[in-house]
Structures are given as structure tokens and as C-alpha cells.
Amino acid sequence: MTLIRPDLDTLPAYVPGRSVPGLIKLASNEVAEPPAAPVLEAIARAAAGGNRYPDLGVVELTARIAEFHDVAPERVAVGCGSVTLCQQLVQISCLGPGDEVMFAWRSFEAYPIVTQIGGADVRTVPLDGEFRHDLDAMAAAVTDRTRLIFVCSPNNPTGPAVHRAEFERFLETVGPDVVVALDEAYAEFVTDPEAVTGRPLLDAHPNLVVLRTFSKAYRLAGLRVGYALTSPDVATALRKVCPPFSVSSVAQAGAIAALENRDAILADLRPILAERDRVRTALVGDGFTVPESQSNFLWLPLGDRSAEFAAHCADQKVVVRPFQPDGVRVTVSSPEENDTLLAAASSYQPSSR
Ligand code: PMP
């Protein structure tokens, strides 16, 4: 007998984007500006009541999310960031070893971690040659032990979005007995009209879970609040495994104010979308391969030079996110910050190894 379960020794650590004082952080897909002014005011008001526990049922925020997406509140489960909802999804769908959680690779690095914490088996399917999900290959890889599938659209860290038609075909092929989580953490940055949005598919697919977050477009990463839209049964199960009081009163108030001010907050994203095109074009002009991105980041598939490129950028005062040995993800930010990145990328000389 051991004090701690031995399989935790092999649990990969989540590697956060580094924050280094004085350096520009383009490593965590955050928006660089602080939360919007009315959101900050709501946060301050909630913080003043911080001696009290938050609303356990997250009633008002749930109602606002339901209203915004035009779904019944029973279809909404709010969590302490969407990464925690990913973990809750493993908890509600998998009993333990032998049960499989499938996702494309490379994708969001928390998926293997939450799978392993849940005691289930990881099943990965490679992205295609354009760094997109290969949904046909994923559907073909489903076994009778597959309990949960994460589909990340746009895909972190590579950028492309899954298209509506291919995702609908995928849902039909997979069938109703596997939970399919469509992780839309970056939905607000999508401009491709063919990209999937999960909300219209919920009625026909009770096994579908749409994950959203307030961390990215709404600029509330530090508050930790995300939500799932799904069938009432799945939402109820997600709420059952959510530890009590996981969503703080500050997070609830901030998220409500963010929804109230949504139009203005999302209007602030427009320059980022223009910058996404400009930075990508400049990087391609410098000879980098950069897949088309529907998000607020770009992927440089630099292979085993990823760590070297990231170290070079850090020397040039920019922190990017290497995923050795696959590539480097860079957040698209303000024109000035992006210019610093572009200067660093232009001056990068691969070592002769
Ligand atoms: N899904 C994806 C694809 C992400 O990139 C992230 C954050 N990096 C999350 C979920 C988690 O977001 P949060 O927990 O901050 O809501």
C-alpha cells in the first residue's frame, strides 16, 4: 500500500505560460487589456461582500447565460473555469481504467491531465497535415470503451476551427452513447462562416456538451469561470460532481457584468482579428509555416527547434509558449506587442545542428 495513488507519479504537469516582469507575455492566449470598467466595478462590489459564501446554485449567472444562448437554465452548468468542467466531464462519464477519453493531438494540454486524474485511459488521434481535426479518423477510432471525446474548435494550440458539416457528420457516426464535448473556449474570435457552433445542435444531440469560458474574449482569466451548455441530464450530473462553492461571488458578479456589456467587450476584439491576419502574413513572409487561425493565437510548427525559438524570443523580451517537439504558440496582441514578436521572429537564426 502507498499513501498516494502511484499513478500520480506519471501525471504530466500543466505548464502555464510564463509571466516574467518586464517581458511581453504572448504565452497564454489572454487579452492584454484589463477587464472592462463596468466589470471591474461589479467585481469590486462583490469583493466587498467577500465575507459571505457565494450563491451555491449560481442562479443569476446561470439565468443570464441561459437567456443569452436561448436555452433553458436546466441546460447550463457553470464551473470554476472550463478546465474544471473538462475534469467534471471525465468524472461523470468514466468509471475508471479501461474507459477511454479521446481527443486529437496536439490539442489542449489539460485533456490528458484531467483524463489521467479521472483514472481513465487516453486515446489520441493525430491532427491532419493542416493541423486540423481529422474527425473521420476520430470516429473510426471509437471503441465500445470510448466514453468521452473532446473536440477543440478552434483548436488550441494550432488554430483551425472544425466545420459545421463535418462535425454534424461526426456526431451522427459516433452516436448517442458517447459524450462529445465541443470546447469553444475561443468562439468569440471565429470569423469563418463555415465554423461549427454547438448551440444549434444541442436539441438533436443530448450527448453534446458545449464548453465556453469567460477567460479569453471576456478578459476574466484570473476570475476562473466557464460554463457548459448541454442536455438537462448531463448538466445535472456536472453540477453533482462540482465541489460546493467552486464559483466565487467575485467570478459570478464579473461574469454577469461581462455578459451585460458583451457588445462593447467583443467590439474591443476587432483589432486583434485584424492583427491576426497581419502577423500571420508577416510571419509567412519571413518563411515560417503558419496554419490559418480562427483564434487569438498562431501556431509555428517548428518541431524540435521550438524550445530554441522560444528562448530566442525571450532574449528579445517576448515570452511565447513552446510545445517541444511540435511547435510554438504565440498569442496575437496589440500592434506594438506583435511588432516586438515579429522583430524577434525575423532575427531568429536556427542553430546548425
Ligand atoms: N479549453 C481550451 C481549448 C483552452 O485553451 C483553455 C484555456 N487555455 C480552456 C479550455 C480553459 O479555460 P478556463 O479554465 O480558463 O475557462
Automatic annotation (TrEMBL):
One of its GO terms (molecular function) is histidinol-phosphate transaminase activity. The modification N6-(pyridoxal phosphate)lysine is found at residue 216. Keywords: Aminotransferase, Pyridoxal phosphate, Transferase. InterPro entries: Aminotransferase_I/II_large, ArAT, HisP_aminotrans, HistidinolP_aminotransfase, PyrdxlP-dep_Trfase, PyrdxlP-dep_Trfase_major, PyrdxlP-dep_Trfase_small. Its cofactor is pyridoxal 5'-phosphate. It catalyses: an aromatic L-alpha-amino acid + 2-oxoglutarate = an aromatic oxo-acid + L-glutamate. Its EC number is 2.6.1.57. It comes from the Bacteria. Homodimer. Belongs to the class-II pyridoxal-phosphate-dependent aminotransferase family. This is Aromatic amino acid aminotransferase.
